[in-house]
Amino acid sequence: MSGHVSIKLASERVNPSVASNNEIPRFFTPGEVICGLGDFMRGHGTYLEDNNIKSSVAGVMQKVNKLICIHPLKSRYVGEIGDVVVGRVIEVQQKRWKVETNSRLDSVLQLSSVNLPGGELRRRSAEDEQMMRQLLKEGDLISAEVQSIYSDGSLSLHTRSLKYGKLQQGVMVKVFPSLIRRRKNHFHVFSFGISMIIGNNGFIWISPIPRELTNEVRNVNADTSSPVTEVSKHERKAIARMKNCIAALASSKMMLDDNSLRYAYEESFKYLNVKDLLDPEAMLDVAFLTQHRINDYDED
Fold it and tell me: Which among 281, 297, 241 is positioned nearest to 264, based on CA atoms?
């Protein structure tokens, strides 16, 4: 019994109508010839064969002077010191937690790298080690900063700041890390009633604005003793709408930052019902309108 198999090239899987500066990105598949060796140097995502530079991954070409790289659309998170990440605790070990951060290896959060209850500054004792699960347990979501990188490539995290710590009452959305635009600030509070942590690792946390928050951008969820308050229907709708906007931009491979997400949220009100944003045509429409706003802003 013979069956018909349809194979799509990488270049056919992305709708090119949403492209910045009206440039259609050139996609390369593994093994495809990029150019002759000539005067070019091969970078990440390429290899040399028969005097040709070929792609070793599926992605977009980036050329810096004479260096050619292929930037993969689908890849694990490669951390840098100072990165803001959102992660999930997967294991409590001796004096440390293992955290899933969308990277190749599990990240590590040492007991010495977290704030003790009440903000005490002292050496960690055996009693602190026994109470680790009261601070963080398996399944808990946290925001943290990359403190250092071990020799095997795994990340060492810390939460020694009021803006980092345990996350409660919100929604986590996962996208490719390559879609996150690096900014000086990854903590944002929006006027339409939600706050966000756009993790460099592709994990985005959406939650209501904490009641105590005024003009200062601070994550009060970092205090594990903070009371749990009811999330209003209005806030739930705003969170759901933003979640769908992220999905819309990510499906068109658009870069995500506070500006693009704010534009997408505003343009999404063309669709009054939040669930209508899950329709593929609506997702593409929102992405197109958002890119139009970004282009207009860049021209100004």
Answer: 241
